[in-house]
Amino acid sequence: MNKITLLNVEFLRPNRGIETYELSLKEEKEICYVYNFEDKFYRYFRTLRSLTNYLKDRIEPKVKFADKAQLSDYLRYKNIVPIEQINKEVETLEV
Fold this sequence. Notes:
By secondary structure, the protein is α+β, with helices and mostly antiparallel strands.
């Protein structure tokens, strides 16, 4: 089970914000982002780039939740993708 640490909350407007989490399991760590819309809808983003695409162009993520409990369960049990691997994937996309 992953340890979930809330690193930051940035409000875009009242009741809409971006939560930054660190997920960790033993030595592995992952940073992820959650768009929280009025505590009713949550969208998970693995990278800052995918979050930016959503905010700018409304490109919907594949992972969405209708309540906080579903989001928490997902974060608690998901496989961690190490930060280094995510950075390599983003670099590959940029080339």
